[in-house]
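Minutes, project huddle
Topic: does the predicted pose make sense with 9MR bound?
PN asked that the exact inputs be recorded in the minutes so nobody has to dig through chat later. Recorded below.
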Amino acid sequence: MPYLRIGMVMCVLQLNGWGGDQGGLMSAYEDAFLVGAAINRNQVAGGEPKALNLAREHFNSVTPENDLKWEKVHPEPGQFNFGPGDRLVALAEANDWALIGHTLVWHQQTPDWVFQDEDGNLASAELLRERLKDHILTVAGRYRGKIHGWDVANEIFNDDGSWRESLWYTILGEEYLYLAFEYAQKADPSAELYYNDYNLWKASKREAVINLVQALRKRGLRIDAVGFQGHYGLDYPDLKDLEGSLKAMKMAKIPTMVTELDISLLPFPNADQRGADISLNFELQAHLNPYPDGLPPEMEKQLTKRYVSLFKLFNKYQDNMTRVTFWGITDNTTWRNNWPVHGRTDYPLLFDRNYQAKPAVEEVLKLSRN
Ligand code: 9MR
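Predicted holo structure (C-alpha cells), as shared on screen:
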C-alpha cells in the first residue's frame, strides 16, 4: 500500500511538471520568469491538439497571436466579436495559464473606420478619443480580472526614437498613448500594463521608451513592464546591444519581458529593415528560401547556440525580467514563414513541424539546472 501511495504522489508530481528533468520549460524556469507562447485561433479551437499538448507541457503563459487585435475583436462600429477571446479565456483558466492581452492600441490591424468620421473624412480628435475610450473600456472591461497583463500600446516609436506618424499620432498627438494607459487601468485595475515594441536593442529606441515610462509615471499613470518583442536572427541583434538595453531598463527600474521571441534562420533581404515592420514584402526567390526540404544539421547547431546565448543573457537579467514568450509554438505556423518574404520555410521556434522538441530545448533546460 505505501508503495502504491508513493507511486501515485510521484505520478501527480510528474503530471504537474514538478518532475525535475521531466518538467517542461515553465517548471525549469519557474523561479526566474514565466515562459509563454503565442497561440492562434485554430489551436485554441482544438484544431492542432499536439500544439496544445506542447503548450500544456512547456508554457505557463499564452498570448493570442491575433484575436484581441482591434480588427478582430471590434471589426465595425458597435460590433464586437468576443467568441475567440472568450474561448481563449476559458482555455487559459482551465490550464492555469497567465493570459496576455495583445494589444489595445496599434497602427496596424486597426480598421479604417476608426480614423474616419461619417463622411469618410479624417476623424476629429474628439471622435477618436471617444472611440479609443469605448474600445478599451469595452474590450479590457469584458476580461476584467481574467487577463494577467495587457500590451496597452504596441510599436509607437520609429527606430530613431521619434514618434511613429500613425493616424493615432496625426489626430491626437502624444496624448493618445497617455489616454490608452489611463483607460486600460480604469477598465481592469488588476491587470498589469505594458508597452511593447521591436528593435529595443537599438539605443535610440530604448531611450525613447525609457523617457515614455518616466513621463507616464510623472503623470501618475501605471506601467508595469516593457516588452522586447524579440524577432531576431542568427547574426542580429548583437547581444551586447541587447544587454545594453536590458541593463538600461534595469537601471531605470523598469521591469522587462521578452514578448515575441523567434530566431529566423533565413537570409534577410535588406539588413536595414530588420525588425518586425509587417508592411515589408519582398519577392520570393530561391536564394532567399535555402532550406525548403529540411534544416541542415549545421544550421540546427547554430540555432541551438543562439538560443543558449540568449537564455544565458535572460538568466543574467532574470531579477528584472518577468516573462519570456515565444511568438508561436511550432515552426509550421510561425509568421516568419511569410515575413518579410511570403511562402518560405523557416525554423525559428523550439519545436519543429512534427511537434518534436529541437536539441535547443534540452540545452535551454540544462542551463536552468546550472
Ligand atoms: O503573428 C502575427 C501574424 O499572424 C499577423 O498576420 C500579423 C499581422 O499584423 O501580426 C503578427 O504578430 C505581430 C504582433 O502582433 C506585433 N509584433 C509583430 C508580430 C509579427 O508581425
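Observations noted during the meeting:
- The pocket of 9MR is lined by residues 65-66, 108-109, 154, 229, 260, 276, 278, 335 (CB under 6 Å).
- The longest strand covers residues 256-264.
No decisions taken; revisit at the next huddle.
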